[in-house]
Amino acid sequence: MNRRSSQRGARARRPRGVDPAVRAARWAAVRRWAARSALATVVAGALAGGVWGTAWLMAPDTFPLESVYFDSRLEHLREADLREALEGRLNDGFWALDIDAIRASLEELPWVEAAAVRRIWPGHLRVQIREHEAAAVWNDSALLSTAGEVFQAAPESWPADLPELAGPDERAEEVAERFLELGVAMERIGFAVTGLAMDARESWTAELDTGARIRLGREDINARLQRFVSAYPGLVREQDRELARADLRYPNGFSVRWRDDDNNAPN
Q1: Close Cβ partners of 231 (under 8 Å, ≥ 6 residues apart)
Q2: Where are the beta strands (DSSP E) in the chain?
Q3: CATH label, 61-131, candidates 1.10.3720.10, 3.30.420.40, 3.10.20.310, 3.40.640.10
Q4: To which CATH superfamily is domain 134-263 assigned?
């Protein structure tokens, strides 16, 4: 009886604690959870602060736009035209301005080839404009730039004495190049080219400063032109009359019509 009681007492006094390795693992898990919770709190606070800070920076009252400076010499546009194009786009704060939208608004204006827009701290906007340089009237309704780009502009703003070119818009650069080549060739025999057109059949017709018309056709343009330029001085000496029109579309030659009292205009 005493021995069994003693044994039960011995069992009751045995330590019942958790294994030290298990305890350490549990505490490590607790510390990781606490660290993650703290990090999440910090991140959430930072995000909230960042959102608030961004909104504060973007607010018009925090960093307002103080001035817009147009740093360009304008020939066909007025500064008032530029400011009107930006109406409603400059009401945001300095950092909230949509620079791409501002540039796009300016580049929609007639005569504007390209615009550059830049923030200048503190509170200033610098705008630079490059205007188109007109090379010719295009299809009687637009202008062709020296870069080969067709653009619209009010007819009253067109420069005087521009050559008149015509053709499909996608062939504008080709027409301009042909015009320059033709001008060099015709200058050798005393003419200036004032117009050149490519029709729907891709046939070329040139107008000269004297009012004469030259039909070049579709093929072998350079060879036909060279043949005419080489022969023309001799024809003038023989006829001593003013050229009305020439047709270079023949395989091995060309035809010429002279201006006289009965025919004062080319057909």
Answers
A1: 254
A2: 67-70, 112-120, 124-131, 134-138, 142-145, 150-151, 164-166, 193-198, 204-208, 213-217, 242-247, 255-259
A3: 3.10.20.310
A4: Cell division protein FtsQ/DivIB (3.40.50.11690)
**DSSP one-letter code for 189:** T
- Model pLDDT for residues 231-252, shown as the tens digit of each residue: 999 998 888 889 999 999 999 9
Please name the residues in contact with 103: beta carbons below 8 A apart, sequence gap of 6 or more.
115, 116, 117
What's residue 65's pLDDT? 86
Q: In sequence order, what are the residues at sequence separation of 6 or more whose Cβ sits closer than 8 angstroms to the Cβ of residue 88?
A: none
- Note the pLDDT tens digit of each residue in 38-59: 555 544 554 444 444 445 444 5
- Dihedral of the alpha carbons of 83, 89, 94, 99, in degrees to the nearest 10: -90
Please list the residues that pair with 186 across neighbouring strands.
none
At residue 3, the pLDDT reads 47
